Amino acid sequence: MRQVLLIDLADEAEAIARYEAWHKPGAVPEPVVASIRAAGISDMEIHRTGNRLVMIMETDSSFDSRRKAAADAADPDVRAWESLMDQFQRPLPWASAESKWTSASRLFSLQEQP
């Protein structure tokens, strides 16, 4: 299943550069990558335009966002990573209080067009 999520970054060139550096291959701590994979996320990409980020996740049938959130809250490595990312990330104004990233709704699919 594909999931698309959005969040903003602090609109500061230095903060954006630091955020990007933290996401280069090998820069994300291995326990964080392992927790993503263990949750049933088979692929994840983050794209940026300006200070807006879009995350695209491909999940398998074992993925449960509530179970992932509970596992993250209990994992000191993930909590440290999220604390670090909090320095850069800015939830969208309409984001729920429980989630930093906001789900996007699909409006169009070429495959569904005649």
UniProtKB/TrEMBL annotation:
It comes from the Bacteria. GO terms for molecular function: racemase and epimerase activity, acting on carbohydrates and derivatives. Gene3D superfamilies: 3.30.70.100. This is L-rhamnose mutarotase. Pfam families: rhaM.
